[in-house]
Amino acid sequence: MIESLENAAQLTALFICLCVAVPRAFTNRSRAWVLLAFFFGSFMLGDLYWQACLIFYEDTPAVSVVSDVSWYASYVFLYMLLREVSPPEKIRKKSFFPYAGPVFAAGMAIFFMQWGKFFSNAVTGALMGLLLYASIIRLLPGNDTGSSRSLSLCVLLFCLAEHAVWTASCFWEYDTLLNPYYWFDIFVSLLFFFFLSAVKKAVKT
Fold first, then answer.
1. In order of start, what are the domains of the chain with their CATH numbers?
2. pTM for the full model?
3. Is the pLDDT confidence value at 54 over 70?
């Protein structure tokens, strides 16, 4: 029951954010807003399929590929958004520190393979590693990322929160508010609204 309510709350948050991003994509003709809208839309489709299975079949999807592909697409759009507002040519300072992101994502993917499928965890780990690297390197002092730093921080927090959600789901299965899974997922839902502010600041529209 709590999971259904929490999923519905996240879908509502995504729908609101999508309703804000789509008009701005048309009025401002900004690729950044288009990519953000695609991010919200793809993530929402994955959640929607998952929620539909919980409602109609009272269980998680037996075939999760629909949700998986939707979430994969959302990660790709988020990476493209980072590159749009903060092009690679603006990144002059290099460091080994950002590689901690892909190493962390790979380690967690191997860890999650105890509960999930090899392929889906491998793809998720690769995409998350890419997002973590791209966000961390843009947050390094000295890189000319300017107003896009807020977006980089949102992406970093999003990736860490998603990993927290997945980790919590491995150890806590009880359907109560004491389950940290719900609190981390609520944080992700709230973070979607900060993406709107971060992109607005990055593109100044």
1. 2-203 (1.20.1070)
2. 0.92
3. no
